[in-house]
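Please supply some protein, with fold tokens.
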Amino acid sequence: MSRSERLVVAIAASCENLQDLSLDRITRSELHAPELRGVPYIPLVRGDDDVPDHPLLGSDLRLPSLLRIPSLRKLTIRDTHLGDEHWSITPIACRLQFLDLGSCYHENDDFNRICTERIMAVVGPTIDEFSLTTAVSNDKLFAKSSETPLQKLRKLHITPFFPLDSVVETISNLAGSPIEKLSIQCYEDDVVDVCTALEEFLTLKTERGSEFYHKLNRIDVSVTAAGYSATDDEVEERKKAAKKLQEFCQQLRLSSAVEEYGASQRPLASSRRASMSFAVQVGVDAAKISSISPPRPTKARSMTIL
């Protein structure tokens, strides 16, 4: 079942004092994405023009209109096409503090990067914490503290889906922000590569001097299961890589932790794609929506649409 962006935005905007919104696998509406008509590999929702106008947003029920919800503070959008150019021109009424943007698997890395950078540039001035899935290559916009819109970014998180060969470049390109904590989540078989990339970044930090990432005080790596049993040699190699990274951090007086996958944890992507239900989770309550109907106002502060 496709989750139309029009219905999703209408529901979110009807939630009074909504602060935390998480969206997963939302489908663009043909009404707001006419440029995607005829593109065979990108799904579109048709026939959702009967979603009622919203008192605040009117008929402009496209994903960028979420930025017009004044109370919104945390926004997560994953597995969703973010190519709407209205992200750049939509009036912003909220003060986002946390932003988590996933990539769209129907598009290539360059397209997802452009979409991510566009949204970052718009909402950046208020963002304190950012979770990143795609590379950032626009050093002219983000690398200089006098120019970056991410003036308050203190925590940067990189997800397991991030392209490993872009780790050093992307972190460097965000040097204009006052980042204090850098965390990377990766799969077991990527531990060595991640630790190596972070060492390259730390080497670059020492070469560029004290002003480069001068606020940084912590680097963490968390590990999620790869789905198979590693050999003793692989386990030993990962331990050595982790130890080497932590020793480097100690030399630079940085706190560091490399946490391995445990039985009490669940892989990041284990259940997101498996769930085919359309649920709006409000606190501990969930309301299943099976048809398009006028959204009713609610006072929930947190909403998840899967």
In short: The first strand starts at residue 3 and ends at 4. Confidence is low (pLDDT under 50) at residues 261-294.
